[in-house]
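note to self: dont lose this again. the chain is below, predicted strucutre after it. 157 aa total, dont forget to put it in the shared folder this time
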Amino acid sequence: MRSRSLLTLAFAVLSWSVVACAKDIALISNKANHLVDVTVPELTRICKGQTTRWADGKPVSVVTRDPASPEMRLLLEKIYNLPKEEVLTLIANANHARVNHPAIVVVDSDEALVKKVESTPGAVGLVDVYAITGGVTVVRVAGKLPLEPGYLLHGSQ
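---
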């Protein structure tokens, strides 16, 4: 009987550790954008700097973490579908003609990302759900919010 309770305890600890390692990335937006939902192709174009203006004419800026960081692995696989070196080149090319208002801004932390999106009209960013504050809006991706079943940007780290 004792081995059964130890086995149950081991299973519970393993289950909790798997849940703790799961990571959902949220698409956040500056509150002035009034962005509610994007399709996966739209999100891909936005993240690659191919969408330059919102419907209201504001320039689009994407705030992201360094493509070489471990936090970006999920986005490299599911959104960019490119190796990190090619994403770095893509960022440089997207920003080349937009000196005063870069298409893609790279920051060092989730906190910096949220603050930049919050303070930049037209900005969106992809961030760990646990870094979100009330200063930004969470945007649906393909009709789903983070933590909902079937959400595209759910992964494990």
